[in-house]
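Training component of the fellowship. As part of building independent skills, the fellow (R.M.) carried out the full modelling exercise for a liganded target. The chosen ligand was iron/sulfur cluster. The inputs are recorded below so that the supervisory panel can assess the work.
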Amino acid sequence: MPKVRIFFGTAAKYHHKNACEVCKIVFFAYLCGKHITQMSDTTLFCGSLDRYSRRPSCPVRIGSVEIGGQNPVAVQSMTAVNTLDTEAVVAETGRIRAAGGRIVRMTAPGRREAENLQNIAARTAELYPDTALVADIHFVAEVASVAADYVDKVRVNPGNYNDPEGTTFRALIEKCRRRGVAIRVGVNHGSLSQRMVDRYGDTVEGMVASAMEFLTICREEKFDQVVVSMKSSNTRVMVHAYRSLMAAMNAEGMNYSIHLGVTEAGNDIEGRIKSAVGIGALMSDGIGDTIRVSLTEPPENEIPVALQIVDYFEGRAAHAPFEPVRKPELYSPYEYRRRASLAVGRIGGESVPVIYGELTDAEKALLGGDVVVVEATTENAPAELRAKILNLMADGDSRPVVVRRSYAESEVEQLALHAALDFGGLFIDGLADGLWIDAPNVAPEVVDDIALRILQAARARMSRTEYIACPGCGRTLYDLRGTLARIKAATSHLTGVKIGVMGCIVNGPGEMADADYGYVGSGPGRITLYRGREVVRRNIPDTEAIEALLELINSDRNQ
Ligand code: SF4
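Fellow's submitted model of the complex:
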């Protein structure tokens, strides 16, 4: 394991740009008023780089559902209708439950919606008594206290609490403790508090500091019914944020339960692959007690995808052994660092990763010689491939690496999910130069499409338009799903452009992250268009907005 040296009380001296990532994280905790009590030389984000095991976490009761501890990883979804419409929310809850999801979240943007949770909870208890309800609070911290009277868990965003003493949050903890309500500390890239942004910028470090500040309060208040999440639509940011948080929590001896998710993943195969890439990179190291696959589709569609992801890790702890990582210090889990490799034609070096299907016969003839093929043979493919590549690095072998695994799957979605879960983390970590999905039961062009989408989802190679689309919730202000389909049809030829399609102006602009263009609901039937973070046109009718978006993109591209 990497050596980690901590200098208690003088951490500030070591907070410079060359400090190791864990030192930086611990320093953030220090800044948050923490006293670092425990840090060993082997503190890392997971228990082992070589042996799969679930991270031990504190069990959390959410109504009739318990997550964390020895419980299987739970799946969940979120309603997309107005929370004031009791029957519509309950109907969606029923569909999520029928699909196999027992945790259902709904937005409570204001006091009225929070009060209506009483009616929703009563109807749900009648119709679906084994379903746990979660209120999602975004901006008005006081609304969480109202919601806590009716639901089983409240999700709060530390970005909305600008009080460094945590007085409001401590009051919420007290209320939740009395009623047996759990809390999710839900940090989102793009909606950190101004205090954190001023100090760290909108960065992974800011996300970790934000979460640790709240978790510290939980610990001071001796409240352990806590789940924490670190979401982003950028899988690289998301994975680095979770791993960094794990390291910071491990350093502090904290074992709070973890909720995993990639925000604004979009829809169809693209949304499924993006979620699997981010979630898989973490679950393959045993991280995660509950997951949500956010799709811009009916919420019940999320559940079968999430269940397939959970199933894929079932029994993994019994995987066959492989040669352990010999020099773990060569691994960079907290920031992107592409493995340095020789360029063999367009494979390796500075080139974007290749896929097997695009190689010429001459290039294929290099595989196994000038280009190393690293193959997974155990059930723990991500860790096995990572170990083999890190050991090549330890040996000073700088030939480019193509990673390969054989799949018997014949169903496209299943193949896409499994390959994304296996390979996504390797490309997020910059370890491989090529991807070879050997799947003889699926058409080659479909396999190639899956491979390119995995590389795109891992931000390793942008070969098509990237859509950052929120799943929609009770705040959505227009026909989000239909609009996304129309925008995709009109823009899918724009290679490398990132377009955010967001349901509301409250969270949309912050959470569409690094989109080049944003299409954001700003009132009923009204859209505001963004170029990056800059508003270009405000409150235009949604009937004209797609055309206006296309004009904007085209005029930029013609300049
Ligand atoms: S951005 Fe989308 S999912 Fe997020 S709060 Fe707004 S409408 Fe809901």
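The panel noted the following from the submitted structure. The first strand starts at residue 60 and ends at 62. The radius of gyration is 23 Å.
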